[in-house]
Design brief:
Length: about 140
């Protein structure tokens, strides 16, 4: 089984700026943690990050036939991107929405996720552990299908 992790804009800055909100863990640290858990679960993972909406749309489209599920931290595009929502709804793969912070406990504009209705579920608020939970959820969705 192969799970694709996609990360949206500014997540490349994790661990280097605003540690009071996003912590001191870098995206590379998170990837290492996910890889450790993936090995235990016996699944392959691929990790990507882009600041560009179109690139994320391309990656979602291209995942069909190459991956079994997607774990997606769309970052700010969560709240704005109809294009990403349309890509998710047509890819034919389970997509797990994930966030480091609890988007429902933050500013009003973060409460609405345009992608939530086309994802299998949402993990939000557990910091780096949200990625582990999203991995577990994606594997469970596929194994119980
Ligand atoms: O909590 C999350 O994972 C978010 O997806 C993070 C996004 C935010 O727009 C979403 O509402 C919730 C922001 C990611 C920006 O990450 C930074 C990391 C360090 C410094 C600055 C930004």
């Amino acid at each position: 089984m192969k799970i694709l992790f996609l990360n949206g804009p500014n997540l490349n800055l994790l661990g280097t700026r605003q540690p009071e909100i996003y912590g001191r863990t870098t995206l590379a640290d998170i990837e290492a943690q996910v890889r450790t858990r993936a090995a235990i679960l016996g699944v392959d993972v691929e990790f990507r990050q882009s600041n560009h909406e179109g690139q994320l749309v391309d990656w979602v489209q291209e995942a069909r036939g190459r991956f079994d599920a997607i774990a997606l931290n769309a970052a700010a595009y969560t709240h704005t991107s109809v294009a990403l929502r349309d890509a998710i709804s047509s890819v034919g793969l389970p997509v797990v929405e994930l966030h480091l912070s609890n988007i429902h406990a933050r500013e009003e504009f973060r409460h609405r996720s345009l992608i939530a209705p086309v994802c299998v579920g949402q993990v939000s608020g557990f910091g780096a552990f949200s990625y582990i939970l999203a991995l577990e959820a994606a594997v469970n969705v596929k194994r119980s299908a």
